[in-house]
Design a protein that fits this description.
This protein has helices at 15-25, 44-64, 78-93, 107-113, 116-126, 188-198, 221-233, 246-255, 270-277, 290-293, 307-319, 321-338, 341-352, and strands at residues 3-7, 32-36, 69-73, 97-101, 131-134, 150-153, 174-179, 205-210, 238-240, 258-261, 281-285, 299-302. It is α/β, with parallel strands linked by helices. The termini are close together. 39% of the residues are buried.
């Protein structure tokens, strides 16, 4: 019995590519057919070329390979969703089970904001999906239009390598950390604005930033890189570490005190869980599903696109050292209890491998 997996493998690393990769790695080689759809960090023309190539490979594999079911991570863009539509309909034609895994928070908006003619295609296609997996309970509403679709909840995870504490936090300074892709919609420029205000009042704070430049609907990767470098040139308390992996990433997470992600549109990203298990307080935008998982016990929820709210939230943690330590310790306990990779893979295998 074989399973056809379609989704983004690492590199580059995103929450979705990490989650997909870890699940695929857990399945023995003789039980899987894998199609990598990760074309990030490429120009639009190269993306189109690889998308066409992916569609051709997907068509051949979906139609002619022998497999029991399809598991895919759905896209929320027209270009990306073309492969999903093709995959769903070919698998349905072959009478195979279809399981979709949503890692974002904007499928419903994508569906209803698509052109009318394309929306009809999406509706007819997703009506054929047997099971969709979401990250938190209220995310089930992303698929509210599909009455016959079964919806399961599986929370995200952290890699077990973060279980081992290998560095101590420096008590002489307070380290802020941004660990995510560098793009406008992640709130990176609001964070830099906020830090510049905070450092005027607090001598002992630093900001470490790690991640790769990516495009979004607001700005291309090249423009983000240029603007980001211009801002950093003026401030020696902000350190850019580039893309970071393995032991370096673990040390960075564990040596940090406050993890900041003022993103515009997160569901519940893996990076937050990684920061929690590394004893960080969390400062994150209060939007969509975040408040369903995080409370004041985990850190501070701030307003979207608000520099002032970021400043106020981070300053609160700076001013209340004892409460900061309590939050850090609580986050590690909660993360270890709720978000282990073993628990994540067990739940996923129960759904996907037992259909």
């Amino acid at each position: 019995m074989k399973y056809f997996f379609v989704g983004p493998l690492i590199p580059p690393v995103t929450g979705q590519s990490l989650a997909f990769s870890r699940f695929v790695e857990s399945i023995s080689i003789n039980k899987k057919i894998v199609l990598n759809t990760n074309h990030e960090n490429k120009t639009i023309l190269i993306k189109i070329f690889f998308s066409i190539k992916t569609l051709l490979i997907l068509f051949l594999r979906a139609l002619f390979n022998d497999y029991h079911l399809v598991y895919f991570t759905c896209s929320r863009s027209i270009l990306g969703s073309i492969k999903d539509i093709l995959l769903i309909n070919l698998a349905s034609f072959k009478k195979k089970k279809i399981i979709n895994h949503l890692h974002g928070s904007d499928f419903y908006e994508f569906l209803h904001n698509s052109p009318k003619w394309y929306r009809k295609i999406l509706f007819k296609s997703y009506d054929k999906v047997d099971i969709s997996i979401v990250l938190v309970e209220s995310m089930k509403l992303q698929f509210r239009d599909f009455k016959s679709m079964k919806i399961e909840v599986i929370e995200n995870f952290y890699d077990e390598e973060l279980d081992h504490e290998i560095v101590k936090k420096d008590k002489t300074k307070l380290s802020l950390l941004y660990l995510s892709n560098i793009m406008v919609s992640k709130g990176i420029f609001e964070l830099i604005d906020a830090f510049e205000k905070l450092e005027k009042k607090n001598d002992n704070i630093i900001l470490n930033i790690a991640g790769d430049y990516l495009s979004d609907e607001h700005m291309s990767a090249n423009k983000v890189k240029k603007k980001f470098e211009e801002r950093l040139f003026k401030n020696n308390k902000i350190k850019y570490l580039g893309k970071i992996f393995g032991l370096d990433k673990i040390k960075l997470l564990q040596s940090s005190d406050i993890f900041v992600l003022p993103s515009y549109k997160e569901a519940f990203p893996i990076s937050i869980i990684e920061a929690m298990v590394s004893r960080n307080a969390i400062v994150v935008t209060d939007q969509k599903y975040i408040s369903e998982v995080l409370t004041s016990k985990n850190g501070v929820l701030v307003q979207k696109k608000s520099v002032e709210s970021l400043v106020e939230g981070i300053q609160f943690l700076i001013n209340n050292k004892q409460e900061l330590i309590q939050i850090q310790n609580y986050n590690r306990q909660v993360a270890k209890k709720k978000f282990s990779k073993k628990k994540y893979l067990k739940k996923l295998e129960q759904i996907v491998l037992n259909v």
